[in-house]
Amino acid sequence: MRGKGPKVETQFNATRHQIHLIASYLMDTMDAIHGLDSGNGNGKPAENGAKSNVSSREIDCLHWAAQGKSNREIGDILGVSENTVRFHLKNAYRKLEVTSRSQAVVAAMRAGLISG
């Protein structure tokens, strides 16, 4: 994007962010469809406790959080904004029934969602 001016770069970054949000939504939708294929009919994976509802994108964020990455670093790795990472982690906390990053990582490891 060099040499194109700040306006073009800003528009490019905004469009890229929107594409990543759409991709994240589609991944969550695919997870829900997979849950329908599991036979429980509610759009969620077959129950193994609340932990089975964690989306693939939330698991990606938890994986990198377990590696000690900051929200900004995770966003750079996944190609999304820091706010999007925060959103995914917050949803994971709720689904894992925890209140902190470290509790979420431990709960995800215990549930087999991520490895140490």
Sheet with the most strands? Answer: none
- Low-confidence runs: 38-47
Beta-sheet strand percentage? under 5%
Name the CATH architecture.
Orthogonal Bundle
Shape: globular
Q: Assembly type of the shown chains?
A: single chain
Query: At the first level of CATH, what is the class?
Result: Mainly Alpha
**Element-by-element helix/strand order:** HHHHH
When the domains are counted, the total is: 1
Fold-level CATH name: Arc Repressor Mutant, subunit A
Number of helices: 5
Distance between the termini: 38 Å
- The helicity comes to 55-70%
> Helix/strand/pairing class, anyone?
mainly alpha
Number of E-state strands: 0
Mean pLDDT: 80
Q: Give the C-alpha Rg.
A: 16 Å
CATH homologous superfamily grouping: Winged helix-like DNA-binding domain superfamily/Winged helix DNA-binding domain
Layout of strands and helices, then pairs:
Layout: H1 6-37, H2 56-66, H3 71-78, H4 82-96, H5 101-110
Helix pairs in contact: 2-4, 2-5, 3-4, 4-5
Question: What labels would you give this structure?
Answer:
mainly alpha; globular; Arc Repressor Mutant, subunit A; 116 residues
Question: Outline of this structure?
Answer:
This protein is an all-alpha fold and 116 residues long. The protein has a single domain (6-110), classed as Winged helix-like DNA-binding domain superfamily/Winged helix DNA-binding domain (Arc Repressor Mutant, subunit A). The protein is built from 5 helices and no strands.
